[in-house]
UniProtKB/TrEMBL annotation:
Residues 357-376 have a biased composition (Acidic residues). Residues 386-395 have a biased composition (Pro residues). Residues 42-344 form the Far11/STRP N-terminal domain. InterPro entries: Far11/STRP, Far11/STRP_C, Far11/STRP_N. Residues 444-800 form the Far11/STRP C-terminal domain. SMART domains: DUF3402, N1221. This is Striatin interacting protein 2. Residues 1-47, 313-397 are annotated as: Disordered. It holds the Pfam family N1221. It comes from Xiphophorus maculatus.
Length: 822
């Protein structure tokens, strides 16, 4: 399978919102009005970002609502087999030894040749992993017994047996060929795979999550399982690679019946378990800096982001037009844009706190305008109008509280100091000293102070050390010798992924594109609904509504799994080695990941984050413990009472973080953001009042601000202020004015080619088996060369004379060539 055959389609029109046509005329203003009203009413979202959601939510998302009848099926198969073994007793009444004996019996039954019998046994094992819910009264009991049973199943070696069965199902050519020929694929086509993947997911997720009351043997089992999953113990490759193979096989249309949601969830949780979550990554980063004798990190980024508060979103142009019309009618309206007193900024701990006075402040900016668009005349009138005198925000006797400082410590790169000194030397002396940052002879005193300040905030990253070390190894391969590469889980996974890396990346982006809410349904697109559509399509309106919710939920879970997986890979590979991160990033960029993420955000993002595509009474484990109430159209429309959908907000933050990773310090990719007109799309995302999401949106706006023109900066001052307050400062970064030397012509190809050359040199030096071919010793002795014994095939003597005639006698010998100098 060639990478070229799997390229993600280029998204040319980012302003096309899926199947909906762009309204014209008054409809535009109606849409803007609705959007602005929703933005003004949007409350602060109490969302805590983490590696994953609560355990119950993560377990419930494994099952689609159309799979709900299968819970009873699992129970029936278990009880049918268990009745003959236990003789009237229940599973929860058995001793541990008796439970082990029964699990061993199930393990033996998994090895039978009859496919139907194997499936029944697998369903019985799945029922155990689900917590023998028929013997439990509460959801807590279900989770308790599920945890107990899963550690028991792992201890008895069930996971290895399931892995062998999974490999057999993946290689089942008969099932693949029949699925390819079918016009419509449903749940029934993937029954065996779904059961196996469900058991494996429950085992990985339950063992991964630590609890305070874990037994010592469970903690030891967790570490053992983690090492096994991350090591090449399964067929000589990590378990994650087998799942990556399933993803590429599905996307190449060779196995359209694969239950892709379960595969992606299991792949994400396997990578999360083996490589570690975000807090573990932070500890690994601290350890890596200590080993390289680098100063400690200036702050813990996770704690800083959690302490941030959301800013009130910028006003839309529709609100400003309404303002002006109300003022013309003589009615008192919210006061227009006012130049605030300089002290007002510091009157609160949070300068963007959403109090009554700040809510009245508006910003003459149009979220749908072009990058260099002129200010609308109506907006200009609003700006020019004289405001009424503002009322005092608090009694004059109250003391003004200045904030302690900005949330992030400023950073300076070595390159920034070199650039500053080069400019200063050219100005005051007339020549430069290259990369010398120590010699300050001939420079005035203020320059000395500036250099001292810059050096105080100098930050050397692990990546810079790795690049420097790589350059040394390439320059002196013999004197520096072999590099000792630590066999970390990330290193093992990268080595396994490297041969087919582009196919894995493209396959994931294809699935992300198919699951995005803004994507059009095309006949040639991938069918990701194979594991959610029932055999018989719905007949009643209620069934159709239920299936519609299930399909939307299914797509949201796929987006969540892919976004979290890609972010984890990027962050861990960056820490392991910068060039491993760069090759994955480059594959993502070449496969149109940047316009794909922008396309994803080109929707009403508040509606996506507050979507209620879930039916609480059908979620596991609620549905197996409580009586099922009668579903009505009204109850389905009402949804849950949550303020926001956790998985959708999690997905949005992950995609923004991926976009930041791809574009940071890459001028050509930053220009892609500008070319694709990302500024208005990203500004609309600021309406979500969640601090972490706003931070990553503001970072993306900051890196392109200098290319958006003076008019954009002038009409987006509230956004500029938010960037100043929330995003880390680089002391020499002229981001707000556009005077930077990096504002050069867009040379995408040269920059990417130079990066690709460095990556290929790194991969060749570290992973090419014949890397030392030029330096290997050569045997120049004629006798030893001719005396070597060469293994010949057994039938060679039959055709020996023909070989002599063809290869020796019929070939002219250039004797004069021996006399010439080599």
């Amino acid at each position: 399978m060639q990478a070229e055959d799997m390229e993600v389609p280029i998204i040319n029109n980012l302003n096309d919102n899926g199947d909906r046509q762009r309204p014209k005329g008054k409809d535009v203003f109606k849409d803007q009005q609705k959007e602005s009203e929703s933005s003004m009413e949007s409350p602060n979202l109490e969302f805590e970002y983490g590696d994953s959601d609560m355990l119950t939510a993560e377990l419930s998302e494994l099952y689609s609502y159309t799979e709900e009848p299968e819970f009873a099926l699992n129970r029936d198969y278990f009880e049918e087999d268990f009745r003959s073994h236990a003789r009237g007793r229940r599973w929860t009444e058995l001793t541990v030894d008796e439970q082990r004996a029964y699990v061993m019996r199930l393990l033996d039954a998994l090895e039978v040749t009859d496919r139907d019998k194997r499936l029944k046994v697998a369903r019985a094992i799945l029922y155990l992993a689900q917590g023998v819910f028929d013997e439990c009264d509460t959801e807590v009991d279900v989770l308790h017994w599920s945890r107990h049973n899963i550690f028991l199943l792992y201890d008895m070696g069930i996971f290895t047996a399931l892995l062998e069965l999974l490999s057999m199902e993946i290689d089942n050519s008969q099932a693949c060929s029949s699925a390819v020929r079918k016009p419509a694929i449903s749940l029934a086509d993937s029954t065996e795979l779904r059961v196996l993947l469900s058991i494996m997911y429950l085992m990985v997720e339950t063992i991964r999550v630590q609890t305070e009351d874990d037994r010592p043997e469970w903690r030891a089992a967790r570490e053992t399982f983690k090492n096994e999953l991350g090591s090449p113990l399964y067929n000589g490759e990590p378990f994650a690679l087998l799942l990556f193979t399933m993803v590429t096989k599905f996307c190449s249309m060779n196995a359209p019946h694969f239950p892709m949601k379960k595969v992606l969830l299991l792949l994400w949780k396997t990578v999360l378990f083996t490589l570690g979550g975000f807090e573990e990554l932070q500890q690994m980063k601290v350890g890596a800096r200590e080993r390289l004798s680098l100063p400690p990190l200036p702050e813990d980024s996770i704690k800083v982001v959690r302490a941030m508060r959301a800013a009130s979103p910028p006003a839309s142009a529709m609100e400003l037009i309404e303002q002006q019309q109300q003022q013309k009618r003589g009615r008192r309206s919210r006061r227009p844009l006012v130049k605030q007193d300089s002290l007002d900024t510091y009157n609160e701990r949070d300068p963007f706190k959403n109090d009554d006075a700040r809510d009245e402040e508006d910003d003459p900016e149009d979220t749908d305008s072009g990058i260099e668009g002129e200010v609308d005349p109506l907006d200009r009138d609003v700006i020019i109008q004289l405001p009424p005198p503002p009322p005092p925000l608090r009694p004059p006797t109250e003391r003004v509280n200045f904030p302690k400082g900005l949330p992030w410590a400023p950073k300076v790169r070595e390159k920034d100091i070199e650039h500053f000194l080069e400019t200063s030397r050219n100005k005051f002396i007339g020549f430069t000293l290259g990369n010398d940052t120590e010699t300050l002879v001939g420079l005035p005193r203020p320059i000395h102070e500036s250099v001292k300040t810059l050096k105080q905030h100098k930050y050397v990253s692990v990546s810079e050390i790795q690049i420097r070390r790589e350059e040394e190894l390439l320059q002196c391969p013999l004197s520096l010798g072999e590099e000792e590469v630590e066999e970390t889980p990330a290193e093992i996974l990268y080595v396994g992924m490297l041969p087919n890396l582009s196919q894995y990346v493209i396959a994931l982006l294809k699935l992300l594109l198919a699951a995005a809410p803004t994507s059009k349904a095309k006949t040639d697109s991938i069918n990701i609904l194979a594991d959610v559509l029932p055999e018989e399509m719905p007949i009643t309106v209620l069934q159709s509504m239920k299936l519609g919710i299930d399909v939307n939920r299914h797509k949201e879970i796929i987006v969540k799994a892919i976004s979290a997986l890609l972010l984890l890979l990027l962050k861990h590979l960056k820490l392991n080695h910068i060039y491993q991160f760069e090759i994955v990033s480059q594959h993502l960029v070449f496969a149109n990941c940047i316009p794909l993420i922008l396309k994803f955000f080109n929707q009403n993002i508040m509606s996506y984050i507050s979507a209620k595509n879930s039916i609480c009474v059908l979620d596991f484990p609620h549905c197996v413990v409580h009586e099922m109430p009668e579903l009505t159209a009204e109850s389905l429309e009402a949804g849950d009472n949550n303020q926001f959908c956790w998985r959708n907000l999690f997905s949005c933050i992950n995609l923004l973080r991926i976009l930041n990773k791809l574009t940071k310090w890459k001028h050509s990719r930053t220009m892609m953001l500008v070319v694709f007109k990302s500024a208005p799309i990203l500004k609309r995302a600021l309406k979500v009042k969640q601090a972490m999401m706003q931070l990553y949106v503001l970072k993306l706006l900051k890196i392109q601000t200098k290319y958006l023109g003076r008019q954009w900066r002038k009409s987006n001052m509230k956004t500029m202020s938010a960037i100043y307050q929330k995003v880390r400062h680089r002391l020499n970064d002229d981001w707000a004015y556009g005077n930077d030397i990096d504002a050069r012509p867009w040379d995408f190809q040269a920059e990417e080619c130079a990066l690709r050359e460095s990556i290929e040199k790194f991969n060749s030096r570290r992973y090419d088996k014949n890397k030392n071919g030029d330096f290997a010793p050569v045997d120049n002795c004629l006798q030893s060369v001719l005396g070597q014994r060469v293994e010949l095939p057994e039938d060679f003597h039959y055709s020996y004379e023909m070989w002599l005639e063809r290869e020796v006698f019929s070939q002219p010998i250039q004797w004069e060539g021996l006399l010439q100098n080599p």
